[in-house]
Amino acid sequence: EDFQPHRKAVTRLNEKYGLDIGLLTNMQPTGKLDVLKWSAVTLVTTCEDLLDPMTPDVAEIYTKEGAIFEAVGPLLDKAGARRAAGHKFAASEGASKLATKHARGEVDAAELLQRVRAARATGRSTILVSMGTVITGDSPDMGWEGRQ
């Protein structure tokens, strides 16, 4: 009875394509991604010290499946390099208001940086968190194009 939309979607896929996908495929144990066993290596864009810890059961299964993870640190390249994908700030249908304002140049990065510096000057801690999508995106401040 629980999660009826998921149950119906899995049933439709199985019936339409003759598959045998289970209701909990790619969901057990929590945190494990089944597709990673097919990857030659999974590149993680952080340093090893900042890797999210895995639960022992997830780590054991990945080891048994031969999944390999390499913490490669930040992705830095040279001018003119081509990239397959990344987070897009450019305005598009369904883009958030903040992303659209940023794309139009309405978010003043200099003012934001000034506020961060002022906070630090008073002893306040500031933290920048990147999940990897912004740094590989098209942000003029922090993306691939932001190295000025």
| Percentage of residues in strands | under 5%
Structural category: mainly alpha
Question: Helical amount among residues, as a percent range?
Answer: 25-40%
What Rg is obtained from the alpha carbons, in whole angstroms? 21 Å
Contiguous uncertain segments of 5+ residues: none
Short description:
It is elongated, with a radius of gyration of 21 Å.
Describe this structure in words.
The chain has 148 residues and is mostly helical. It has four helices and two strands. The protein has a two-stranded parallel ribbon with strand order 1-2. The protein is elongated, with a radius of gyration of 21 Å. The mean pLDDT is 76.
Characteristic terms for this protein:
4 helices; 30% helix; mainly alpha; two-stranded parallel ribbon; single chain; 148 residues
